[in-house]
Amino acid sequence: TFTGSLVAFAKLQGILSGKPLILPLRHFVNMGLGGAIFLLLLLFYATESGFLLTLLVLCAFALGFLLVLPIGGADMPVIVSMLNSYSGWAAVGIGFTLENPLLIVTGSLVGSSGAILSYIMCHAMNRSFLSVILGGFGGGDSGAATQGGGGAAGSEPRPVKMGSAEDAAYIMKNATLVIIVPGYGMAVSQAQHVVRELADALKKQGVTVKFAIHPVAGRMPGHMNVLLAEANVPYDDVFELDDINRDFAQADVAYVIGANDITNPAARTDP
């Protein structure tokens, strides 16, 4: 949990690349480390050797690094939730060791809630839970790479069309209703303030602007709501998925910014 959290922090802060670091035979190495941890744990309980305890901790530290490095930066919020779950199960283990019922109960609550939240997030993104937490296990590497920053193709130079919030508002000024769908890409680029400027410019033209929030468009539930509130987007303009879906049929423009994976119809069938 500790070393995995360090890797997740480094990827989210941009200290490490958000692209998955795919190591050869990583699943076999991880399974070997897991088996070694289990064996060392049994031996430590039998002998209480400090040397075995040191080996056990080092193996656990290595496993934390190796489990999280192959996972793309866009999946880090899911992994943070899962690491939180791991810390709960660690507390359960300590509770059994110390015969402390409070640690067992609270650890179980933390462990189960973190695992459930991670599963819900993966399900909402139509992603395989095991594929995400194991870094593309069972042939899902391409999906992990895509989510993590574009894979090898991401290094190729691409043409970029630049424009201001006013430019975008000018293009959409003849619309009656514009629905803005923000997501993870907006969060990474910290574009929420510019998006609010766009909404303000459209409102001055008499356009109705609404924000449609998918539960995990920012990966963590509630993430988009917090970012939009930070940018002073009026709360009355922000709608949850169930409340806004029926309005899309009447909207002139659906402006998707960084939420392609949760709006693309192909996501229903293509991993």
Overall pLDDT: 83
Secondary structure category: alpha/beta
Biggest pleated sheet: 4 strands, parallel
Strand tally: 4
Low-confidence stretches: 138-153
Rounded to an integer in angstroms, the radius of gyration calculated over CA atoms is: 22 Å
**What is the distance, rounded to the nearest whole angstrom, between the alpha carbons of the first and last residues?**
28 Å
Percent of residues in beta strands: 5-15%
Strand order of the largest sheet: 3-2-1-4
Assembly form of the protein:
single chain
Helix content: 55-70%
**Strand and helix order:** HHHHHHHHEHHEHEHEH
Query: How would you sum up the global shape?
Result: elongated
Give the count of helical stretches.
13
Key attributes of the depicted protein:
4-stranded parallel β-sheet; 13 helices; 7% strand; 271 residues; alpha/beta
Notes on the protein architecture:
- This protein has 271 residues and is of the alpha/beta class.
- Helix content is 57%, strand content 7%.
- The protein has 13 helices and 4 strands.
- It has helices spanning 2-13, 26-47, 50-68, 76-98, 101-124, 129-133, 141-147, 165-171, 184-189, 192-204, 223-230, 241-244, 260-263, and strands at 177-182, 208-213, 238-240, 253-257.
- β2, α11 and β3 form a beta-alpha-beta unit.
- α1 runs antiparallel to α4, α2 (26-47) runs antiparallel to α3 and α8 packs across α10 (192-204).
- Residues 138-153 have low confidence and may be disordered.
